[in-house]
UniProtKB/TrEMBL annotation:
Keyword annotations from UniProtKB, A to Z: DNA-binding, Transcription, Transcription regulation
Organism this protein belongs to: Clostridium brassicae
UniProt keyword annotation of Transcription present: yes
Domain HTH deoR-type: 3-58
Bilayer-spanning residue ranges: none
Superkingdom to which the source organism belongs: Bacteria
Protein name: DeoR/GlpR family DNA-binding transcription regulator
Amino acid sequence: MLAVDRLKKIEELLIENGSVMINNLSELLDVSEETIRRDLEKLEKENKLKRVRGGAYLPETSDNEVPIRIRENIFLEEKQLIGQKCVELIEEGDCIMLDSSTTALYIAKNLNKSNKKATVITNSVKIVCEFENSKNIKVISLGGTFRKSTSSFIGYIATDSLQKLFADKSFVSCSSISVDFGATDNNESEAMVRNIMLKNSVKKFLVVDHTKFDSPSVNQICKLNDLDMIITDKTIPKKYKEVLVRHEVEIVYCK
């Protein structure tokens, strides 16, 4: 297939699906993954897509979140390790809150395997489905406006429901972290859901991989000193350690 035809096909798949994965394109178009990366780079320069690790997506005018289809397929080992560590912190009979992040989905997957009894409050459709056949997990699902890019419920219906719910522990992620602004998100409504989850929990956990540090987004979820613990996969920058130690926020590494 000629390069011009390959680029046209990639654009067609983007319009059809909203996102593409490098490994799938490589197999479908019978070229190397490196060739696909160059194709995506060319299309990004033409403002036809946005590249991320493992693929690319077509940003919506109102929502720049990387589609969950892509996020589910990157940093899998890191998310699995974080998920395992979080389940160690969940005690029998706990009520926990989980957001719509793919890291939270891995917490749910590991909790399901653990056979611990717990109640899970979530705005994530995928987490609800994870516990569909579980005998040990009671699920409380928030309603609201469905957000396609995260497969989650947001908006005032979701936040109004959360205001009346309380938990032993909350596990939330974020788009980015900043020393000055704390945990931040690129979506205002998602940030509000995460903010209330943290406020309405006794213990507050932020679960993030190492790529989230030093790139603040627009909407604040919480300040760093609002947290009890940050669970991550690699050593964090020194300036974050100093701030977290000063505010007595525990740092846990999953290696």
